[in-house]
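2024-03-11 09:14:02 DEBUG pipeline.ingest accepted 1 chain
2024-03-11 09:14:02 DEBUG pipeline.ingest length=88
2024-03-11 09:14:03 DEBUG pipeline.predict start
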Amino acid sequence: MLDAEIQSTIDRRLARVEMRVRGISKLVADDTGCPRVLNELAAAQEALSRVAYDVARFHVAGCVPSAEPNSQAAQRLELVDIFDRFLA
């Protein structure tokens, strides 16, 4: 479970991502040039990556070490699978 501080940070970032995605949708609807749309898409993707990094960092620093010893190995394997999805 995320603590209140990290959850607040993530909520703010996701709200900004949501606004950015709505803006991208408007750019597409307004037939804005592809370079501008691509730049906005890259910014949204970077913002989502930052949220993922924050959640992963919190999980690795807080959840995995406090897990029962017999479930730590399973959690590490789960993390490897998650990182594989991000890096693929």
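2024-03-11 09:14:41 DEBUG pipeline.report The chain has a mean pLDDT of 89.
2024-03-11 09:14:41 DEBUG pipeline.predict end
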